[in-house]
TrEMBL record:
<keyword id="KW-0067">ATP-binding</keyword>
<comment type="similarity">
    <text>Belongs to the glutamate--cysteine ligase type 2 family. YbdK subfamily.</text>
</comment>
<protein>
    <recommendedName>
        <fullName>Putative glutamate--cysteine ligase 2</fullName>
        <ecNumber>6.3.2.2</ecNumber>
    </recommendedName>
</protein>
<dbReference type="InterPro" id="IPR014746">
    <property type="entry name" value="Gln_synth/guanido_kin_cat_dom"/>
</dbReference>
<keyword id="KW-0436">Ligase</keyword>
<dbReference type="InterPro" id="IPR011793">
    <property type="entry name" value="YbdK"/>
</dbReference>
<dbReference type="GO" id="GO:0042398">
    <property type="term" value="P:modified amino acid biosynthetic process"/>
</dbReference>
<dbReference type="InterPro" id="IPR050141">
    <property type="entry name" value="GCL_type2/YbdK_subfam"/>
</dbReference>
<dbReference type="GO" id="GO:0004357">
    <property type="term" value="F:glutamate-cysteine ligase activity"/>
</dbReference>
<dbReference type="InterPro" id="IPR006336">
    <property type="entry name" value="GCS2"/>
</dbReference>
<comment type="function">
    <text>ATP-dependent carboxylate-amine ligase which exhibits weak glutamate--cysteine ligase activity.</text>
</comment>
<dbReference type="GO" id="GO:0005524">
    <property type="term" value="F:ATP binding"/>
</dbReference>
<keyword id="KW-0547">Nucleotide-binding</keyword>
<dbReference type="Pfam" id="PF04107">
    <property type="entry name" value="GCS2"/>
</dbReference>
Length: 363
């Protein structure tokens, strides 16, 4: 097995009115308050969002501690600004459109992409795992593609939008597909092939710059890592930590396969597209598509297959038992989407969803 890679997580979080649940444009105020506590929050496209960035970590326990502290600091800063912090992937309550953060780049994006940008306000989680170089990052990306729909189902946390059930566990992923460079990447022959595609999209105006490469797995633009960005922002720190733990093990497994010359998995692109829809629709409590052989099976079975697939890496890290417990917890009690729907269905009150999401953000 390869050397143990470091990893980290970026979490996009929503700022809402505590009473109505409507997004509130206070990200600059919240960021200033957090900075006084020694935490730098990044501003996102819409001014009702902030993003945390964990320090580089070597163990799941360490990463979980960082994520918990970051959420606590961001939540306190939000409270000081008179708003609530929610780890949700789409706002449960929505105004007509979202205000854009006042930076030149974000204004350019809003001008170019119109309502796609103004209806953004959606939150994901990005897992970075260190790799030796960009060629390895591209090769790892190819081998992770079949698992992306399952990771989406695992973290689904956007079942309620505009005060109603969406019919999807991850409505964020449906909205996200509207961007011209979102979703799964194409098969990439090399790092130079990746660069050629990015240059083509910039030259055509389909994206403004390489920072708008929103593919669900990609070589990071800023760090020596492969970045996996398929997931909704998970509802809890425990679920974010589980996601990152499984992703790192997948990267380690893929890197080992590359080193020993194992064949890449072969599958139809349409199977991947269908698996994405299935993962977004059903979430972890329904069915999934095994992209490699085209079988439809319970998502729980495919998640356990993933756990078995990456067990050598998890054993090397000493994290198999904790990962297995995390998987069992999600399968037994559901994820963010499950809890959103349960909260809404109890009384039909959106306020119950807001309360549940705020509680889970810091649980």
């Amino acid at each position: 097995m390869n050397d143990r890679p470091t990893f980290g997580v970026e979490e996009e979080l929503l700022l809402v009115d505590p009473a109505t649940g409507l997004p509130v444009a206070k990200n600059e105020e919240v960021a200033r308050s957090a900075r006084r506590e020694g935490v730098d929050l990044q501003l996102e496209l819409t001014s009702c969002q902030v993003e945390t960035t964990s320090p580089v970590s070597t163990t799941a326990i360490e990463l979980g501690k960082h994520l918990r502290e970051l959420r606590e600091t961001a939540a306190k800063a939000a409270t000081d600004a008179g708003v609530s912090l929610l780890a949700v992937a789409v706002p449960p309550a929505v105004s007509e459109k979202f205000p854009i953060t006042d930076t030149p780049r974000y204004k350019r994006i809003a001008d170019r992409f119109g309502m796609v940008a103004h209806e953004q306000g959606i939150c994901g989680a990005h897992v970075h795992v260190s790799v030796p170089d960009r060629e390895i990052a591209v090769a790892v990306s190819n081998r992770l593609r079949p698992w992306l729909p399952l990771l989406l189902a695992l973290t689904a946390n956007s079942a309620v939008y505009r005060g109603a059930e969406t019919g999807y566990a991850s409505w964020r992923s449906v909205l996200w597909q509207r961007w011209p460079c979102a979703g799964p990447p194409p098969y990439l022959r090399s790092a130079s092939h990746f660069d050629q595609l990015v240059d083509m999209m910039v030259d055509s105006g389909a994206i403004l710059d390489p920072g708008m490469v929103y593919w669900d797995v990609r070589p990071s633009a800023n760090f020596p890592t492969v970045e996996i960005r398929v997931s909704d922002v998970p509802a809890t720190v425990a679920e974010s930590t589980l996601l990152a733990t499984l992703v790192r093990a997948l990267v380690m497994t893929a890197t080992e396969d590359i080193a020993r010359g194992a064949e890449e998995p072969q599958f139809e692109e349409q199977a991947l597209r269908a698996a994405y829809w299935k993962g977004a629709h059903d979430g972890i409590g329904g069915e999934a598509i095994d992209v490699i052989d085209g079988r439809v099976l319970p998502a729980a079975d495919l998640l356990n297959t993933l756990l078995t697939r990456v067990r050598p890496a998890l054993d090397e890290l000493g994290e198999f038992d904790s990962a297995a417990r995390g998987v069992a917890e999600v399968l037994a009690h559901g994820n963010g989407a499950t809890r959103q729907l349960s909260a809404l269905r109890r009384r039909g009150e959106l306020s119950d969803v807001i309360t549940e999401c705020a509680r889970r953000t810091l649980s």
